[in-house]
Amino acid sequence: MTFSPDKLNKVQEIIARYPEERQKSALLPVLHLAQEEFGGWLSVEAMDYVASLLQLEPIEVYEVATFYSMYNLKPVGKYVFEVCQTGPCMLRGSDDIIAYIQQKLGINVGETTPDGLFTLKVVECLGACGYAPMMQLGKFYREHLTKEKIDAIIEECIQNAAINN
Ligand code: FES
Predict the structure, then answer these.
(1) Binding site, annotated residues
(2) What average pLDDT does the chain have?
(3) Cα-to-centroid distance, 128 and ligand 1 (Å)
(4) For the chain, what percent of residues have pLDDT higher than 70?
(5) How many CA within 13 A on the CB side of residue 105?
(6) Which of 69, 70, 89, 137 to mutate to test the pocket of ligand 1 (most atoms within 8 A of CB)?
């Protein structure tokens, strides 16, 4: 398991942003690169590889990767719904939104649909409380969620997957 030459250059660029001997500071962005490069999730092998690149103990990488919800520790679907379940979103109906997604996709939180298209996760506050209830989908936030919006988002993902196949 190794990064492509392009990604390795990017890793060097990231490390260079920090003082010498402080390459641990590069851990978060390098884990993002690893997740992107190795199929959308971080296997133990991928985390060990990142540890070796940054000259860290593997446990230092596991600690970080298991702490943040944006790192996936098992394979995920092409579209990952990360629904915020913290107070403000909960008060605005995130429980109903989560239940609706579960029912609509036929999966529970933490699961992926058998066709590999969708994964449902619940996460803590994503800093968009004023737009509650909300979720992250890829690099974008989807806000003021309703059941109708969820239907539209799922349909949009299915269409995009069909176009990209
Ligand atoms: S509580 Fe959901 S974004 Fe803050």
Answers:
(1) 84, 89, 125, 129
(2) 95
(3) 5
(4) 100
(5) 33
(6) 89
140 DSSP β-pair partners: 137
The Cα-based distances of 150 to 49, 99, 129, 135, 154 in angstroms read 37, 11, 18, 10, 6
8-state DSSP, 26: G
d(C-alpha 9, C-alpha 3), whole Å: 9
What confidence category does residue 21 fall into, taking pLDDT thresholds of 50, 70 and 90? confident
CB of residue 128 inside a 6 A radius of ligand 1: yes
Domains and CATH numbers, the chain: 5-67 (1.10.10), 79-164 (3.40.30.10)
What is the value of pTM for the model shown?
0.86
In whole angstroms, what is the distance from residue 20 CA to residue 108 CA? Answer: 45
pLDDT tens digit string along 66-105? 999 889 999 999 999 999 999 999 999 999 999 999 999 9
* Angstrom distance (rounded) from CA 161 to CA 165: 6
**Ligand 1 pocket, residue 132 CB under 6 Å:** yes
